[in-house]
């Protein structure tokens, strides 16, 4: 069995909200495998934050750039939020977003693009040296559609087209571009709020589906019900999972009652042309990155050499 450290227990507790002893037991049962321990706690009904994949810890900004029929997102990370509020940092992210659109969301191509007499990569290194804090272009992506529009939305805006959450939605249609853009922005706002995993159930990976079914099956068996009833219980919970996690099955947050699929269906009739969500993407600053934390008193002690 792997050694279970206090930091591992704390990490699991932060991610799930479960009790300390339950987290310790989960890690012991799963040989220290964090993802398996999260599943173990979910099966036992002990996780209070089962849908939380990890703490959002890194700082920085999401930048958005758009043009007719296309849009791009870029995430640039910094060590502190103080730097993320720096005007030079903001200007860099804005420029990087525009260049990400030209580079079609390819980070390697983006870093090699010309910027201010150098490249994106060299300008960023100069900014790191000037400000004295580590920064990186973590990821970028671009969407394009024809005919149609790519609508965007920024949440927790730090400036125009800059924020902590950025969303792009590609709507394929021959309908009026202004109407499509307004609809797309509402859908992007919905995605920012709900963070769907996929467009439809068919777009979910087999691994995700198998994992959810296994967890629901174990939970149902704990009730002592026969297998035929367990299968129905699992199917019911999977339907609920789709309603919570799949964009077209989610209830539209704008009105709180209509499934997104019905919103698109109604808009198609109102706009006089079929509308299809061809794709979407949501970036949140630092998602999946763990920020290192420590005891402040210990840090002072170490710095003083005591």
Side-by-side strand order of the widest sheet: 5-2-1-7
Separation of the first and last Cα atoms: 36 Å
* Major sheet description: 4 strands, antiparallel
The average pLDDT score comes to 85
Task: Specify the structural class.
Answer: alpha+beta
Q: According to CATH, what is the topology of the domain at 59-167?
A: Tetrahydropterin Synthase, Chain A
Uncertain spans, ≥5 residues at pLDDT below 50?
A: 49-57, 293-297, 299-306
Q: What characteristic shape results from the CA principal axes? A: flat
How many extended strands?
Answer: 9
The proportion of strand residues reads: 15-25%
Going by CATH, the homologous superfamily of the domain at 59-167 would be Elongation factor Ts, dimerisation domain
Q: Count of helical segments? A: 12
Helix fraction?
40-55%
CATH class of the domain at 59-167: Alpha Beta
């Amino acid at each position: 069995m792997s050694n279970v450290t206090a930091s591992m227990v704390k990490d699991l507790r932060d991610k799930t909200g479960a009790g300390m002893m339950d987290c310790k037991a989960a890690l012991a049962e799963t040989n220290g495998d964090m993802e398996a321990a999260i599943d173990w706690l979910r099966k036992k009904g002990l996780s209070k934050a089962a849908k939380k994949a990890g703490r959002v810890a890194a700082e920085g900004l999401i930048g958005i750039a758009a043009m007719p029929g296309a849009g791009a997102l870029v995430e640039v990370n910094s060590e502190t939020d103080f730097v993320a509020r720096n005007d030079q940092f903001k200007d860099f992210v804005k420029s990087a977003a525009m260049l990400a659109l030209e580079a079609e969301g390819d980070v390697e191509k983006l870093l090699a693009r010309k910027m201010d007499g150098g490249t994106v990569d060299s300008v960023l290194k100069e900014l790191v040296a000037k400000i004295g804090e580590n920064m990186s272009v973590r990821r970028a992506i671009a969407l394009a559609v024809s005919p149609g529009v790519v609508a965007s939305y920024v949440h927790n805006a730090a400036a125009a087209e800059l924020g902590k959450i950025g969303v792009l939605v590609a709507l394929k249609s021959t309908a009026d571009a202004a109407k499509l853009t307004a609809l797309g922005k509402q859908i992007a706002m919905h995605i920012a709020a709900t963070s769907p995993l996929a467009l439809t159930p068919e777009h979910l990976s087999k691994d995700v589906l198998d994992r959810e079914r296994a967890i629901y099956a174990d939970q149902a068996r704990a009730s002592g019900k026969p297998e035929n009833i367990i299968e129905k219980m699992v199917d019911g919970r999977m339907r609920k999972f789709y309603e919570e996690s799949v964009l077209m099955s989610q209830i539209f947050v704008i009105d709180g009652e209509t499934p997104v699929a019905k919103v698109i269906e109604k808009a198609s009739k109102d706009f006089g042309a079929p509308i299809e969500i061809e794709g979407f993407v949501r970036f949140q600053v630092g998602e999946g990155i763990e920020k290192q934390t420590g005891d402040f008193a210990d840090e002072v002690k170490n710095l003083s050499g005591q």
